[in-house]
Amino acid sequence: MDIDIQMPESTGCNLQLPDPYLLSWYEQAENRTLWIDKELTEDGIEIAKKIMRWNLEDNDRGVPLEKRVPIRIMLASPGGDLYTMLAITDAIVLSKTPVHTCAVSLAASAACTILISGHKRYAFPHAHGMWHSGSAGLSGSMEQVQSATKHLDGIEAQMQELFLSRTKVDAKKLKRMKDKDWYFTAIEMLADGLVDEIVTDLTQIL
Questions:
Q1: What is the pTM of this model?
Q2: In angstroms, rounded to a whole number, what is the distance separating the alpha carbons of residues 172 and 66?
Q3: CB count, 10 Å around CB of 97?
Q4: Closest C-alpha among 40, 64, 57 to residue 73
Q5: 11: which residues sit within 8 A by CB, 6+ positions away?
Q6: 121 and 107 Cβ atoms separated by less than 8 Å
Q7: In the 8-state DSSP scheme, what is residue 68?
Q8: Dihedral Cα 53, 158, 173, 122, nearest 10 deg
Q9: Which of 43, 91, 116, 196: disulfide with 51, CB 3.0–4.6 Å?
Q10: Over its length of 206 residues, how does the chain's per-residue pLDDT go in tens digits?
Q11: Angle, nearest 10°, between helix axes 45-61 and 82-94?
């Protein structure tokens, strides 16, 4: 005998299956592992929130710095939203709980900045990085465009300062390369100080 069950709309029940991507994201987050594996959008601010939340949990529990479970950010992204990247980068740098970053495939543009911000930085053997000055489409009055250009120039200067402070690249080389799409192999990222280790065993990052 078939039983036909109908849920009244007034119950507010949602019988749809959960989004597999979101389900995977939350399962990984339980282990303090976060993935940026697509273009970074404004929704990526959740990563900064998670870093702040886990810092608060560790502080409230009185966990010593050396015994805190690291936060892992796995990167396979072409880049994305500038201001979201800045928020994540600041959260990483300011975090007392260790934040480890790892380039799994291509960590480009904003993802590369996040990569180099980690307290410990890793790359898979065939991962790549890409650094550049970014791009922007500006519109509006002449005064508005000039104001936006000045603002973005200031951010670019900050990003160059961060890059120099977090890598072994010197200012002369950065000046020569900054207007290009500057690609790195895993070995080149290690040599230039974008990462600290190339992964040879998954236990290094799990």
A1: 0.84
A2: 37
A3: 20
A4: 40
A5: none
A6: no
A7: S
A8: 0
A9: 91
A10: 444 445 445 545 554 555 665 656 565 677 999 999 999 999 999 999 999 999 999 999 999 999 999 999 999 999 999 999 999 999 999 999 999 999 999 999 999 999 999 999 999 999 999 999 765 555 567 677 777 778 877 888 899 999 999 999 999 999 999 889 999 999 999 999 999 999 999 999 98
A11: 20
Q: Are the C-beta atoms of residues 195 and 166 closer than 8 Å to each other? A: no
For tokens 């260790």, what's the residue? 98
Q: Which of 206, 199, 77, 87 is nearest to 129 (CA)?
A: 77
d(CA 169, CA 163): 8
**CA 49 – CA 52 distance, rounded (Å):** 5
- The amino acid at 140: G
Using the structure block, give the residue that is written with the tokens 């550049």: 132
